[in-house]
Every structure is written in structure tokens, then in C-alpha cells.
Amino acid sequence: MNTDIEIGKDAHGTPVPVDVEELLATRLLVQGNSGSGKSHLLRRLLEQSAAMVQQIVIDPEGDFVSLADHFDHVVIEGGSYSVREIEALAGRIRQHRASVVLSLDDLEVEQQIRCAAAFLTALFDAPREHWFPALVVVDEAQMFAPAAAGEMAEDTRRMTLSAMTNLMCRGRKRGLAGIVATQRLAKLAKNVAAEASNFLMGRTFLDIDMQRAADLLGMDRKQAERIRDLQCGHFLGLGPAVSRRPVAVHIGDVKSGGKNAATALTPLPQADAASMGELLHADLAEEAAEPVRAPPPSPPPAPPVEAIAQSLAERAEPVSDSDGDQPAIPLPQGDVDGLLREMAAEEGATFKPVATLFRTFATRCRERAIPSAHIDMGVFRRMFAFASAGVDQLDPAAREAVEEMASQVADDVLAPYLAIVVAAAKGQRAPDEDTLARVYGTASPGRIRRLLDHLEKTGLISVHEDFGGERTITVPGIEAVMA
């Protein structure tokens, strides 16, 4: 069986072949500045070998989804799936030998990296009986195997470096042949680049990248200048699957096209400055007045749970006359619940220290002649948490069930936990991060994510989040509240 494909022609018009079977064993590294034709090269390679071998493309920009229009590739939108779904899909891809494009363009950069890392790791961890040969193409590989930490979280960097290193170093025995493409060799981790035995080097201008490319191609410093003079779509190739000596190749035509392929100039609109100015300013004030993102509706004022207030009132000392002849008269509850409801509804109340809130509470109780001696700071903190979360919006039976569920929850996480429980009991979606941040008294999204991790680890909630940012939170035992 002939396993050669033609990727282009050399300077004399002679076809330049690539041995796909050899490529599976020796891997490929592609480098080229933006606009050098790097993606065009990958597309040519994929199209020519589509009928010969399974193909798996990690596509951060969505450039390769058009392969599905001409071949049997399945497009997987990374942002539509959770981590476990991505891992399960990777296992099925290996099992059924499906050619796929994992499109990540709808995700933020760090989420792209985490999604790709989870996907690659699951491909690598497939059971032995599914180790069929496959080309794994990773475009913009410097994102997924960075030479330096940059701005991404350290755990993300370790995860993605491990996945990429496994692909390039140990993937061959599992049938995975890595093809990595990068704009800059200097930004790509050396232990990933060093595992490739085949190279296609396109135009680059920085000395450090030219020198590394020349070293890989076995060229001296003077010959390295050729790399700077390469035209778009021209590459220097070397390796057992390409050529035993450096060869210049002009990449051939492709059937499919990337979404950003059109770079030609287009005529400007025929309008004078006055007309264009009117067009730019038409209804500008109205558009600027519209919110970019509609804020979530403000929650209604949240009074305290009645069950707590009643239990506290029952523990209050009765008032009797000095002679003891008159029957005991219980201290009136007054309007403690109304006072807490009022305080919880005040702007920024949850951001204040508990000690400050408790002093305000005690002062207002004295001003309004509301007995509060039986409420210490610890009790107040929990009552205020119930007030902030709006537990009183539930019916009495549900409030009693919520109080039971919250009895073992620590004071410092009680308010956001109750907010999640109340939303679940009412059949609503879980509160978003802004709402939880307000109830928790923080402006840090990171603290909210750590809070959710803590609540999940302690078994209070279960969080299901996909790469698109959609989060679903379930509360164990909520059926008793909703019954």
C-alpha cells in the first residue's frame, strides 16, 4: 500500500511527498510567522491524508471546522461540554476511530488550554484495545506547551505541559502521532519540540527563532538567512517522512478554507466625511444608554427565618415583678425580624465586618426598645445569614427543613450556602457569581470559585460546569425542602 501524499512541489516543480506511515512514527513540527501559510500547510496535509488515517485536530481559532464540509470530520464545540463529557468523547473517538475537529474558539484562552489538556489526556489514557493510529494536530502549540509560565495559572500550565509531553514523547506507542504548529519556536517548550523528527519551517524574522529553526534543519548561520526570505506558502522541509536533506517546498492547493482566509483589500464605502459622521453618531446616545449586559434582578428584601427567632424567644428570660406574685410575662420579640430584614437590604451590608453589623444591630435595638440581650454575636451572625439569603420566602415547612440542613454548616459559608438552597427550593437556577459575591461579602470571583470548591468537597453541593461557563449546582437533600 502506497502511504505517500503530496504536500507541494520543490523549486524545480517536482512533487514533494510525505510518507504518512513514517510520519506516524516520527512526528512533525511546523513553524511559521502569522501569514506564512502555516495553517494552509496543515490543511493540505490533513486533506491529502484524510482517507488514509484517523485525524484529530485541536483548533483554538476554529479555522479547521470547514474540513467537515468536504470530508467526514465531526466538529466538536469545546464550550458545549463539561470536563467529563470531553473526556468521554475522547474515549469514544479512539474507540470508533472518528476524525474530529475540537473547536475551541468560543472559549477564553485559559479554558481553551484546560479543555485541550483534558481532551489530550483522555486520548492518551484510552484502553490498549483502542490504540489505533491517528494524527493529532495541535495548532498554535505555543499556547498548549509554553516555554514559560506567562499569565496562566500554574496548575493549568502543569496540566497542559503534561498532556503535550505525553503526546509527543509517549504517544507513538499508543498510536498517537503529534503534529504541532507554532508561530515561534522560542515560545514552545523544548521538550515538546525536541521529540519531533520531521520539520517544516516557514518564514520567520526574529534571530532566535531563525537560529533554532536552522539548528533543527542542520543549517549554518549564513544559510539561516534563507528562512527570513521565504515567501508565503513556502517551507523548508527535513526529516525521515519528508526528505533526508533540506528541501524547499511550495505547498499545494486545498479544497477547504479557513474562516480568516480572506485578506485581500476591499473597496471603501463611497461616503463623504459629513455622511460618515452622521452615520457614526446616529442614535449614539440611545445605544450608549442601553446596558451592555442586563444586570440580574435585585433580590427582594430578605427577613430572618422565623424558626430561629421563635426558638430564641423561647429561650429568653421571663420578666416578673419583684414580689413574684404576678404571672411571668415573656419578653416581647419586638421587631427583631424586621430590623434584620432592614439591615440585610441595605446597600453593602454584607461587605461589613460582623462586629460592625452586630454593634449596629444592638444600637438600633436600644433605640427602638427591642429586647436583644439573648442574642450574642454568634447567634446574630447566623440570623443575619438567614436574612441575607431570603429564607423567609419559603413556606414554614420548607424553612424548618432548611434550618435542619444548615445546622451543621460553618458560619463563614452559611449565607451563600443558604442562597443556593433557597434558589433550589424555589425551582430556580443557582445564583450567579455576582449574587453569591454580594451575599458572601466579597468582590473577588476567585473567592467565589474557591467557596464553591469548598462546599462541593464538604458534600454540601454538587457542581457541574462545562467549558462554556455554564454552571449547574445541585443540593443533596433538597427534595425534603421541595416536598
From TrEMBL:
Keywords: ATP-binding, Nucleotide-binding
Domain AAA+ ATPase residues, every copy: 24-214
Record InterPro entries: AAA+_ATPase, HerA-like, HerA_central, P-loop_NTPase
Gene3D superfamilies membership: P-loop containing nucleotide triphosphate hydrolases
Pfam families (UniProt xref): DUF87
MF annotations from Gene Ontology: ATP binding
The protein's name in its UniProt record: ATP-binding protein
Source organism per UniProt: Aurantiacibacter sediminis
